[in-house]
Amino acid sequence: MTLELQGIGASRGIAIGRAHILFHNQPDVREYLIPAFGIDQEVDRLVSATEEARRQLLTIKDHIPTNAPTDVSAFIDTHLLMLNDSSLTEVPIEMIRTRHCNAEWALQLQRDALINVFNEMDDPYLRTRRDDIDHVVNRIHRVLADEQVADHEIPDGRLKGHIIIAEDLTPADTVLMQHQGIAGFVTEHGGATSHTTILARSLGIPAIIGVESVRRYIQDNEPLIIDGELGTLIAGADDTITSEYQQRLSAFKAHIASLSRYKTQATKTKDHTPIKLLANAELPEDISFISNAGAEGIGLYRTEFLYMNRMAPPEEEEQLAAYRSVVESINHPVTIRTFDLGSDKTVDGGRNLSQTVTNPALGLRAIRLCLNQPAMFRTQLRAILRASAFGKVKVMFPMVSTQQELTQAKNHLEICKQELDREGIDYDRYIEVGAMIEIPASAVCAEMFAKQVDFLSIGTNDLIQYTLAIDRVDDQVNYLYDPLHPAVLRLINMTLLAGKKHNVDVSMCGEMAGDPRFTRLLLTMGLTNFSMHPNAILEIKQIINQTDLGQLPKDTLRILNMDDPFEAEALIQDLNTI
Predict the structure, then answer these.
(1) I need a surface site. Which of 206, 362, 391, 471 has the fewest CB within 10 A?
(2) Domain 297-435 in this protein, CATH class
(3) Residue 370: active-site member
(4) β-pair type (232-235, 276-281)
C-alpha cells in the first residue's frame, strides 16, 4: 500500500532509495553528588570528554571534500568554536566545584541557560542557532556516556544511496552522510533557517523537514521517494509512481548540470531588461563561494557573527579588519547591515539571563537596539565607513519602523563622518545609505522612507512573519508562512512602487528572492535587484534569461486581490510554464 506523508520542502531535488532510520539516543541526564575527594577527577572527566568531542569534529572536518562549499567547513568551525567558549568549558567546571554535581548535570544546566537565551531571540535566523548548542552539548554527553561512535560517523559507505530518517540532524551528521553518498534525508523537526537546512541546500541534498513522527510510519530499509521541493515523502510506491519519479530525477539532474553555462552570462531578460543578482553573506569564508556563483555583489552582509559567543562587543579595529577583508576580496559593491541583534543583548555584549521579555520579537532589537546603545552603534558605523575606503560599500539599517529612527541613525552616521574628518581618516563621503523594509509599518510608509535613503531592501523573512503574526520556526504554526498571502504581496508591491516613484533602487534579500517559484512574479511586479543564498543564483539567472517580460500576462497582478490560496498557486504555475 502506498503511504504519502507531507512535510516542508527544505532542499530541492528528488531522491529514491531505501530508508535508514537514525536514532540519536537522548542522554538520560541525572544529578548525583560528587564527594569532595572526587571533584578534580570529575572536572578531568568533563575536560577529557570535551577534548574527545573536539577530536571527533576535527576528524569530520578532515573528511569534507575539497570541492565542498566553504560554508560546510564554517558550520563545523562554529561547533569547534563553541567547544572553546568559556560558557561551555569554564562555567560547567565551576558548577562542578561549587555544587559538587556530576559533569553531565553541570553541562545540562549550562545548556538550559544558553538555550533560554537563544529562545528569547526575535530574529528567526539567530534563534535557530540554539540547535547548535544542543548538537555540541549532546556530543559531549555521548562521550561522557561512553557511547560508541554512531554508524553514520563510520565512513565505510554503508549509507550510500540511502534516505536518512531522523528526529533531527546536526551539520556534522549531514556532512558525514553526504560524504558517504546519501540520497536525501527527512527529519521530524528543524527550521527553514537552521544550519542543517542551509547546509543541505548548499550541498544539493534533497531534504524534507517537519514530518511529525515520521519514524513511527517508516520501517528501516523500506523503499522511499522524497520530493524536496514539494515536501512529499512516498513509501510503498508502485511501479508507475516509481517510474515517474525516476524520470523526474533524471530531468532534475540534467537541469542542474545545465546551469553552469550561466556563470559567465550577463543577467537580463529576453527583451534585454538588465537584472542584478546579488548574494547574501554571513561569514568571511562565504566570499569565494559567492564569487564562483557569479554574483554581482553582496546585497546583505550580516554582521551578527562578530557579536556572538562573546562577553564584550568587538572593537572598531576588529570590525574594520573583517569588513575590509570582504570588501577587498570581492570586486563588487558590499551592502553591510548594521547589527540585527535581539532583546537579550546588553550594552557590553553580555547575556542578560535574568531579564524576562514577554515578546522579544516586538522588543528591543535591530535598529532599536542600535539607537539604545549609541556607543556600540557608532563603533560599528566607524568601522563600516573606514572599510568604504577600500571598495564600494553601502550601509543598511534593519527593522526601521519610523522616520525618527531613520533620521537618528543617519545622524549617528553623520557624527561618525565628522569624527573621521577630524582624525584625517579616509572614507567614502558619499556612501549610500539604505533601510530594510521588513515590518508592515515600513512597507506602508515606504514612500516616506524612499525620500530619505539611497536604496530600500525588502526582507521577506521578517515581513511575512510580522504581517501574518506567525513564527516560521515554530512547528505548530509555520504552515501559515505564505509568501503569496495577498497582504504580503500588497506590501511588497507598495514598496516597489514607492522606489519607482522616487527613483530609489529596491532590492529583495529574503528567501523569497531565491525561490524559483516566485521569480517571474517578482519580475512582473518590477523587482530588478535580487539578493539570495549563492547556491540559488544560477537557477534564478536561468529563469530571468529565459523570460520575456512582454510575453507575461498583463493581468498577473490580479494575484494581489486573490483570497483563495489555491487560485494564487494556480496562477503562479501558469506564469512559470510560459
Answers:
(1) 362
(2) alpha beta
(3) no
(4) unpaired
